[in-house]
Amino acid sequence: MPTPLRTLPLLLLLLSTPLTADDRPNVLLILADDIGYEALGCYGGLDFQTPRLDAMAAAGLRFSRAYASPVCTPTRVSLHTSLYTTRHQHTIVLPVHRGTKKTVDFQAMPTFAQSIRSTGYATSVTGKWQLATLEYWPDHIRDAGFDSWCVWQIWLQGKKTLRHWNPTLNQDGQVRDDIADRFGPDVLVDYVIDQMRDAQAKEQPFLIVHNEMLPHDPIIATPEDRRLGRPAKLDHMIHYMDHLVGRLLDAVDSMGLRDNTYVLFMGDNGTHEEDFRNPRASEPGQRRHTRHTRAGNVDGGKFKLGDAGTHVPLLVWGPPSVPAGQVCDDLVDVVDLFPTFCELTRTSIPEGLSIDGHSIAAQIHGQPGPTRPWTHQGIGKEENLFDGSWRLFRQSDALKDARSLPAEPNADNQDPQAAAARDRLETAFQTITP
């Protein structure tokens, strides 16, 4: 049938309009496993070597007060759903390593990846997916909003698997059989780079959540350790993780993607203190696992609701609009990443969806933005609110004086400022309901 005359002008316009690539920005989140703020030199850390992360901070933006829950599952569910632990109720580690049939229901609690994927983004995820046992829930990752993945399948045929050497990695539904002699974190970085190249070739924006498996124990020899013939140490695992972050930043640069790609680095919880052996433990004021910063000693870490267990690094690097070398002191909660990613990718948050975070996109671009009065963290039956100076625990009713971090002693009940903080935070707790 001939084309109706009235449609010819529109048809000619479409044919004469050059096709252009989707100019929406890319987002790459690197979520490291078990690393507190004090492990990075750019945060004043003195025990570990992190040259690439320090350079990332120098060329980008460092958030000095970012917080998460003190263990992986609560943090990761809060990340994907923008819900406090009180509301999503995943307050302990989901026992995927024991093959649990329990799962995180991302249909009942929508994710940012679901929304961003619906707008045409290529979405992928890597590393530790401790949110479902894939043998029982093979479509869980796709349902969560990711079309492609290369993740550690923690449970396989009744046994827990390995993540580092001889890794068991599930890529898009199939366990890879070509990586037995490779180091798992290296394989994941290769996958991320391949995903970026594929999206670039298709002129499609990408969202990648790279769950870096380092430096989570067991403490193992990295490829660098094997090459140098030296023993495995947490220090070396952190240094190798730093090297892998550098590989990803170099890849973004070499592909010409930096001007339109936001790269974020964040920890999921504090450092597992038992993995660090303090060489100064015999000195006065030192403990076996004390870490050191220019501001003072850090004791505690993963599993604990104090500053050492919840204060994590957050760096942003990429487009020229990210101010180089600046530090933002605004409080940031992991739940804030959901609306931030949506704003950066020009994605609307579903109407009627209740979330607990607010976007920090303005701060990422060096502008004043909405600030939060406190952050919320939870593990097990306990939770706390931290307002930057005081930390109140809901169940125990303990109040910590955090005005001189990393020291965090019990508050003086006779201090009028402590009493005012308690009243303020107790009132805030009433607004956080399941």
From TrEMBL:
The EC class name is hydrolase
This chain belongs to the protein called Arylsulfatase
Which residue numbers delimit the Sulfatase N-terminal domain? 25-345
Q: Which SUPFAM superfamilies match?
A: Alkaline phosphatase-like
Q: Which protein family is named in the record?
A: Belongs to the sulfatase family.
What Gene Ontology molecular-function terms does this entry list? arylsulfatase activity
- Keyword Methyltransferase (UniProt): no
Record field: compositional bias (Low complexity): 409-420
Q: Which domain of life is it from?
A: Bacteria
UniProt xrefs under Pfam families:
Sulfatase
Query: Annotated region Disordered: where?
Result: 273-303, 401-434
Q: What is its EC number?
A: 3.1.6.1
Mind listing the UniProt keywords for this protein, alphabetically?
Answer: Hydrolase, Signal
Q: Which residues form the signal peptide?
A: 1-21
Q: Which organism is it from?
A: Rosistilla oblonga
Q: Which InterPro entries does UniProt cross-reference here?
A: Alkaline_phosphatase_core_sf (IPR017850), Sulfatase (IPR050738), Sulfatase_N (IPR000917)
